Amino acid sequence: MFELPVAAALYCLGVAGIFLALWLTYDRRDHLRFEQERRKVAFHCIRCDRLYVAPAGVQLCRCPGCGHENARLRF
After folding, report:
1. pTM of the model as a whole
2. CA-CA distance, 64 to 62, in Å (whole number)?
């Protein structure tokens, strides 16, 4: 069907394409995980005067020190 050099070149290009697709897929997945972990919301406890963070999207969170539920800080 194909001569040996052509078949070898096509095989190498196919393998390189698979590795490129895997690399891009896992890089995108890791980037999304990193961004999700990096985005935090700041809270200030009005009872014990403690600053703490929680994952993004949370509007109310309990203080890890005293357990009082606080609203997120808005700047």
Report:
1. 0.54
2. 6
Measured distance CA(27)–CA(20) in Å, rounded: 10
- Asked if 39 and 32 count as a contact pair (C-beta separation under 8 A), the reply is no
User: Which spans in the chain are helix H?
Assistant: 4-38
Query: What is the token pair recorded at 55?
Result: 């994952």
Say if CB 40 and CB 52 are below 8 A apart: no
Instruction: For residues 28-32, give the mean pLDDT.
Output: 95
Identity of residue 27: D
Burial class (CB in 10 A: 0-12, 13-18, 19+), 20: exposed
Residue 39 main-chain phi, psi, to 5 deg:
-75, 115
